[in-house]
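forwarding from the other thread:

> can someone predict this with N-succinyl methionine?

sure thing
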Amino acid sequence: MGASGRSAMNGDTAMAIRRIELVEVAIPLVRPFRTSFGEEREKRAILVRVDGLGGVGEASGWGECVASPEPRYSEEWLDGAWLMLHEYLGPALTEGGALEGPHEVGQRLRWVRGHRMAKAALEAAVADAWLRARGERLAAYLGAERDRVPCGVSVGIAPSVQEMLLEIRGYLDRGYARVKLKIEPGRDLHVVRAVRAALPATPLSVDANAAYRLADLPLFEALDDLGLVMIEQPFAHDDLLGHAKLQVRLATPICLDESIRSAVDAAAAIELGACRVINIKPGRVGGLLEAKRIHDVASERNVPVWIGGMLETGVGRSVNLALAALPGVTMPGDTSGSDRYFRHDVTEPFVLGGDGMMAVPATPGIGVEPDPQRLEAFTIRRSVVFEEGVEGP
Ligand code: SMG
Ligand code: MG
């Protein structure tokens, strides 16, 4: 056992990190997911495993990195995150010795600029291990009180309105509480109008994934008449001013996703009037604790928030559900059931109740873990970032 392990044994709460491993998985999607920036047919993700040893014993934890194979949704991408975890984040985390808690992860990684999705995965894995060692649930640790949360569903761009409606009706039959339509130039107003006409009472929103500009104002004025719950990320991620100029012209709330990378961003966007709703994703903002801070900033300003999705496996979905149980999360999230994405997930599936509600994991840590056999079947590469007592390259 190394020096950091011994010091952890002496403390009550500290946890020494003994091993960090990355596992890349590729899981077929039940249907392709198309947005304004491309199509995904399988889910590839880096799962981070952290083995820790603390005053209360040994525990392992898992976290999921939501960086996509290509840097379209954000500048991060999967292979970059893999390298980042190896070269910088793993060493930055372990060089400081035993950890007093998950809050120290962000502090140790802060000197690395950006790379939030990679940081979030490591923080989640440490938090899972640390909480499991204490027998504490992530939702409770974050301050969540609810044990079930309402869920919405995000519907990819489909070849025709008919196909989209068929898919949507299937989700509504299952109980989803809100339907989000992906839009892109050329597949926007007529699609949303047709869906609205077919489903006059369904809570509907649209997500443009930054595909438009202020010059498209007439489109948004037309969408404004369709009784949408919100319009998500119409303009570029760095265009807060453009969003503020659009929001004053619309009755429909603008929801920001890609634009909000931190609690500081959230406060600025709210103060500028760039949005009236925020989509929180722990990966996009650098971790679950920053996600909680965004929740707090928005709650203090009476701005509703909801928890987004990145087509996560059960490992990431469990974190999203814990966050969704926070008191300021007042709108259904993109926290859909596992079967909306996968025939088989790496964990036990998350199942939507017929009433559109999903149970928040009720056991310690993130509450789920990869099934060893399924993990093995979906794994395309593995690599050890850190092992106690073993020198790095
Ligand atoms: O997890 O159900 C899901 C997907 C939700 O639409 C969704 N996510 O911009 O909000 C968003 C997109 C980003 C997906 S990029 C892979
Ligand atoms: Mg979005």
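The longest helix spans residues 116-134. thats all i got for now
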